[in-house]
Amino acid sequence: MLLQTASLVCFKASLYPTVIPQICVSLRRLREIRNHATMVGPSGSLSPRASITHVIFDMDGLLLDTEKFYTEVQEIILARFNKTFDWSLKAKMMGKKAIEAAKVFVEETGISDSLSAEQFLVEREEMLKTLFPTSELMPGASRLIRHLHAKGVPICLATGTHRRHFELKTQRHGEVFSLMHHIVLGDDPEVKQGKPSPDVFLTAAKRFEGGPIDPLQILVFEDAPSGVLAAKNAGMHVVMVPDPRLDKSFNDTADQVLNTLLDFNPAEWGLPPFEDSGN
Ligand SMILES: O=P(O)(O)OC[C@H](O)CO
Ligand SMILES: [Mg+2]
Q1: Which of 62, 7, 26 is nearest to 222 (CA)?
Q2: 119 CB contacts (<8 Å, ≥6 apart)?
Q3: Which PANTHER family has this protein been placed in (predicted)?
């Protein structure tokens, strides 16, 4: 609504450029305002953006600091072909199932004649399997998961990662991940296509108690452009916590963009507020 009004204001302002040019702020700026605003009700009280009852978490790059491992091994492999790995390619790969990301990698870099997607997966596996067990939680991940669980908000995980990698990545974080009501992995038979297809999130919504839950009651946390799109394709609300090196244009699809999970305010979404300050 805010953006529709803004478009109208900009259109009118363009008709009277010398009279009200200052009114025509950019749509990007208005999206930023939307990303930081809660609605003010008639009584002046703040009303939440939505009435969220269920939460779905992405894993890599959102709860676990594992995206850096993929970046590292892909840089090493590309160096062999005298090529460099950059964040525009990273943006196209992250969040996807392994084989889907692998195809993007060999095709976009033009090395598919020398290295097939399947060979790429084999080559990177040796390195990844030593790195994944060292995975660390992202800032604010444990606090948010524990808070929602303690308040009885049903939470689950929906990741593109397959079972074997999931076990390696989470082996030091079993307690936190055990708080999830359920976990949907990239190699789940119901997840036919990876993100940006909505499959993984729709499957996750189905498996909650009393599911399928209305997508409008679900808040998804994501770090990847493909994951944000998947959540929107599933009709859900989405908070994006992107790596700052991603192009900012990817932020526009999300309902809210945060620097870190520590910045999340549950009350803005109709969820029980934190009782600590987060420090
Ligand atoms: O971000 P996730 O948790 O869906 O994981 C996807 C891949 O494994 C890594 O990009
Ligand atoms: Mg992710």
Answers
A1: 62
A2: none
A3: 2-DEOXYGLUCOSE-6-PHOSPHATE PHOSPHATASE 2, PSEUDOURIDINE-5'-PHOSPHATASE
The pLDDT tens digits for 182-222 are 999 999 999 999 999 999 999 999 999 999 999 999 999 99
> Residue 260's pLDDT is what?
98
- Judgement on whether residues 182 and 129 belong to the same structural domain of the protein: no
Span 94-122, pLDDT tens digits: 999 999 999 999 999 999 999 999 999 99
Q: Which atom of ligand 1 is nearest to the CA of 224?
A: 1
Which residues are catalytic, by number? 58, 60
At which of 133, 153, 179 does a domain end? 133
- How many CB atoms neighbour CB 174 within 10 A? 9
Candidate of 57, 90, 132, 161 to mutate for ligand 1, largest count of ligand atoms within 8 Å of Cβ: 161
Distance between alpha carbon 85 and the CA centroid of its chain, in Å?
Answer: 21
Residue bearing the CA closest to ligand 1, atom 9: 95
Residue indicated by tokens 């190699």: 187
| Tokens linked to 67 | 């995206």
Q: By percentage, how much of the chain surpasses pLDDT 70?
A: 83
What is the side-by-side strand order in the sheet with 54-57? 182-184, 155-158, 54-57, 218-222, 237-240, 256-257
CB neighbour burial string for 29-51, b if at least 16 within 10 angstroms, e if fewer? ebbeeebeeeeeeeeeeeeebbe
The pair of three-digit structure tokens given for residue 108, joined into one six-digit string: 């976009």
Give the count of domains, the chain. Answer: 3
Nearest CA to ligand 1 atom 6: 95
